[in-house]
Amino acid sequence: MDPVRNPYAPGAGQRPPELAGRDRELDAFSVVLERVAKARPERSLVLVGLRGVGKTVLLNALRSAALQQLWGTGKIEARPGQSVRGPLASALHRGVREIAHRHRDPERVDDFLGVLKAFALKSGNGRWHPGISVPAARGRADSGDMEIDLAELLLDAAELAGDVGVGIGLFLDEMQDLQSGDIDALCGACHELSQNGAPLVVVGAGLPHLPAVLSASKSYSERLFRYARIDRLDRQSADHALAAPAAEEGVTFTSDALDALYTATDGYPYFIQAYGKSVWDNAPGTPVTAEDVRVALPEAEAELAVGFFGSRYERATPAEREYMRAMADLGLENGDSPVATSAVASLLGRKPASLSPARDSLLKKGLVYAAERGTVAFTVPHFGRFLRQHAA
Fold first, then answer.
1. Which end of the chain, N or C, is less surrounded by CB atoms within 10 Å?
2. How many helices and strands, by DSSP H and E, does the chain display?
3. DSSP 71-123
4. Rounded to an integer, what distance in angstroms lies between the CA atom of residue 119 and that of residue 124?
5. pLDDT tens digits for 45-55?
6. 265 and 244 in contact (C-beta within 8 Å)?
7. What order do you get walking across the sheet with 375-378 strand by strand?
8. pLDDT tens across 24-40, in order?
């Protein structure tokens, strides 16, 4: 079929043509937006799940929903070892710019921008470049203590948004990569916002162990956030994600083809887009059959092996690869569910303590996560299967 008309979009964080299976999260967030704007108490939101389940896509969709309600929004992606102060200041600056033109008191806006500038200048680089011409404020959000400064800054931003009857949304991707001090500050700021009923919400997205990271920071974090576990799609939603955009182009799938695609993708949104794209490019016409799927599978798997799986495998050191291969071998019988670290050591004939450096490095690189105490699991679905088939 015509590749130009191919509707599938297997890009990282790229919105698919049909955002299937996420209506519950979108509807719940609409309620949050309305409640916060009416000064009703509401918790911030954290999306958790494996890579490839569409967390970033959903995060962007929630941000779009906030923008439709005329909220100010800003988004950042946390990076390991990087302070969030500078990126957060830039994101909040954008959010405030989106609402500032509706504010009746320009001096109030300038006062806040002075506080924002003072906060940003404490990032350590000694400069602030986005174009805030007002002087930095003194005595507000400039103590150098991130927990104090962030709470003061977000409360001031929320008050500014409340003046025009809206809120501000801060959207944080890869939230598990925040430094421990920044996580402490973020939890503390969310606590202050909640206590004050301030119209500002934080929406984070991260790997499955993110709730444990937040809980280790503040014991009350489970009450600060509403956690939404984002998982693979059920069969009906997965079929819809494939069939709906194809139908827009006059193409249908046989039931056997949809069976074969669900078996191949396991309902993971990224795989649905990747396999869908390959099947479209290889199928001679409509309807798409199970035989068309069978012919296209090797091409899709080869592309995933290089871009989705291979790029991550290449980041690992030889010791880390050995550890992951052992995990994959142990996962053969349990569908790559979490495996005990003691079992990995036993399989490799090593003492658990000697493998700690490799395990800890894999955790920092985001290739595995600690599912629960004494166990590890891959952050990427089907990664164990990839290792068993391709990694020597």
1. C
2. 17, 8
3. -EEEEEE--TT--SHHHHHHHHHHHHHHHHTT-S-HHHHHHHHHHHHHHHHTT
4. 10
5. 999 999 999 99
6. no
7. 339-340, 375-378, 368-369
8. 999 999 999 988 888 88
Q: pTM score, two decimals?
A: 0.91
d(CA 309, CA 312): 5
**CA-to-CA distance for 192 and 185, rounded, in angstroms?**
11
DSSP output for 154-203: HHHHHHHHHHTT--EEEEEESGGGS-HHHHHHHHHHHHHHHHHT-SEEEE
Q: What is the DSSP letter of 332?
A: T
Contacts of 20 (CB under 8 A, 6+ apart): 233, 237, 238, 240, 241, 244
Cα gap 187→184, rounded to integer Å: 5
pLDDT at site 222: 78
Contact 147, 190 (CB under 8 A): no
pLDDT in tens, 93-133: 999 999 998 888 888 999 999 999 999 988 765 555 566 77
Place of tokens 């887009």: 273
Q: Do 367 and 379 meet the contact criterion of CB atoms below 8 Å apart? A: yes
Q: What is the pLDDT of residues 132-151, one digit of tens each?
A: 778 889 999 999 999 999 99
Going along the chain from its start, the domains and CATH numbers come out as 23-229 (3.40.50.300), 234-313 (1.10.8), 317-390 (1.10.10.10)
Residue 306 to residue 308: CA distance in whole angstroms: 6
Q: Is 60 exceeded by the pLDDT of residue 266?
A: yes
Q: Which amino acid is at 256?
A: D
- Judge contact between 299 and 293, C-beta under 8 A: no
Q: Provide the pairing of β-strand 168-173 with 72-77.
A: parallel
Q: Cα–Cα distance between 36 and 144 in angstroms, integer? A: 29
DSSP state at residue 233: P
Smallest CA-to-CA distance from 271 within 244, 233, 230, 240 is with 233
Query: How far is the C-alpha of 218 from the C-alpha of 198, rounded, in Å?
Result: 20
Sheet containing strand 225-229, strands side by side: 72-77, 168-173, 200-206, 44-48, 225-229
